[in-house]
Amino acid sequence: MSTLLEKHIVELLQERNEKAISLLYDNYADTLLGVANKVVRNEELAQDVLQESFVKIWKKADSYDPSKAKLFTWLFRVTRNTAIDKLRSINTKSDKEIQIDVSDVYSLGVDGVKPELLDVRENLDKIEDKYQIVLEALFFQGMTQQEASDELDIPLGTIKSRLKIGLRELKKIYDPAIVALLLNFL
């Protein structure tokens, strides 16, 4: 690919000109589909990854810095990371399905304890706001960690850290066995 065409595509992307997507697709789609297919090893899934990648590329076009990487390198990374995320998502879903069948939540010996009846909501105000928000989203709004991350616009790693710290703070208020029980409802 010529450097001039690459610069033109970058300019169009940064201007949010829709011609950029057409040019990207015409010049890079086959190669990026190959990248996605190599990771996910499924043609149909690879096509989904390619589509998601183009959406991410469009949304995050302003994050591309030509001084850090060539356009293709950036496109490659976005596509590869999207493919890896897709695989993780599929594996997580299948792991959750397996865990439902082998869950030990009922063998804890606390059949009478129901998290909705505990006064957790009332005691949340005893911990910092940033932990309250995460615990509220996960326990009372029924969000997954990824959904909470998206909804609250907080990185997934931060959600996980705040959950861990928030639960540690709740352990100071409650019996650790009850907090362990709450974890099984996530």
Q: Please tell me how large the radius of gyration is.
A: 22 Å
Oligomer: single chain
Identify the CATH architecture of the largest domain. Orthogonal Bundle
Counted beta strands: 0
Query: How large a portion of the residues is in β-strands, by DSSP E?
Result: under 5%
How would you describe what is shown here?
- The radius of gyration is 22 Å and the shape is elongated.
- It has two domains: 3-101, Rna Polymerase Sigma Factor, Chain: A (Orthogonal Bundle); 105-183, Arc Repressor Mutant, subunit A (Orthogonal Bundle), CATH 1.10.10.
- By secondary structure, it is mostly helical.
- The longest helix has 31 residues, at 71-101.
- It contains nine helices and no strands.
- The protein has helices at 3-14, 19-40, 43-59, 71-101, 120-123, 129-140, 145-152, 156-173, 176-183.
Would you summarize the structure shown here?
With 186 residues, the chain is mainly α. The chain contains nine helices and no strands.
Question: How would you describe this structure in keywords?
Answer:
2 domains, Rna Polymerase Sigma Factor, Chain: A, elongated, 186 residues, 71% helix, Arc Repressor Mutant, subunit A, single chain, 0% strand, 9 helices, mainly alpha
Helix-strand layout with pairing:
Elements: H1 3-14, H2 19-40, H3 43-59, H4 71-101, H5 120-123, H6 129-140, H7 145-152, H8 156-173, H9 176-183
